[in-house]
Amino acid sequence: MSDKDLRINEQIRVREVRLIREDGEKQEILSTVMALELAREQGLDLVEVAPQANPPVVKILNYGKYKFENEKKVRDSKKKQKLIKMKEIRMQPKIDEHDIDFKSKHVKEFLSEGNKVKVTIRFRGRELAHTELGLDVLNDVLARIEGEYDMDKAPSMEGRFMSMVLRPKTKK
């Protein structure tokens, strides 16, 4: 439930509520007016925390502080998320040894950073008749990065492109 859904103080329009005090003790059923007076005496807000309950559950607390704590939790949970990006390496079937070596190092680097890598071979014109050359190049790349990857998608043709997707090796 987001903060926008929470009703506070005069926004609570029911006859009775189940009140939880600030320290988390004593669940009692009171009229909304009485609960609001108790909150005002303490200089705090009356916040509806469970509107679906019967009667709705309200808490006496500092709403500004409560809202800040919730936003902080959301920010912290976003920090802990790991976004996996897809990187792409493109080649042609008639690629030189040094170039394969260079591109393989890039694939290794991307995998070590925790990214997925899509290795693509582009065929032009008559090269399409010899797709086995592209497969040889992909297998050569796999041989050079041995043990650093898990196969997400095996080499396959998609129009003029042959591609495979690799992900970093999962740690057990």
How is this structure best described in words?
The chain has 172 residues and is α/β, with parallel strands linked by helices. It has two domains: 3-78, Translation initiation factor 3 (IF-3), N-terminal domain (Ubiquitin-like (UB roll), Roll); 86-168, Translation Initiation Factor IF3 (2-Layer Sandwich). It contains four helices and eight strands. The strands form two sheets. The chain has a four-stranded mixed β-sheet. Strand 5 (86-91), helix 3 and strand 6 (116-122) form a beta-alpha-beta unit. The protein is rod-shaped. The relative contact order is 0.11.
Main pleated sheet: 4 strands, mixed
Shape: rod-shaped
What is the C-level CATH assignment of the largest domain?
Alpha Beta
CATH superfamily of the largest domain: Translation initiation factor 3 (IF-3), C-terminal domain
Q: How large, in whole angstroms, is the Cα Rg?
A: 30 Å
Supply the number of helical segments.
4
- Which CATH architecture of the largest domain would you pick? 2-Layer Sandwich
Quickly give the structural class: alpha/beta
Which residue ranges are poorly predicted, with pLDDT under 50 across at least 5 consecutive positions? none
SSE arrangement, N to C: EEHEEHEHEHEE
Count of the separate structural domains: 2
Q: How are the strands of the biggest sheet laid out side by side?
A: 2-1-4-3
What is the number of strand segments? 8
User: Which bin fits the share of residues in helices?
Assistant: 25-40%
CATH topology of the largest domain: Translation Initiation Factor IF3
Mean pLDDT over the residues: 86
Straight-line distance between termini: 36 Å
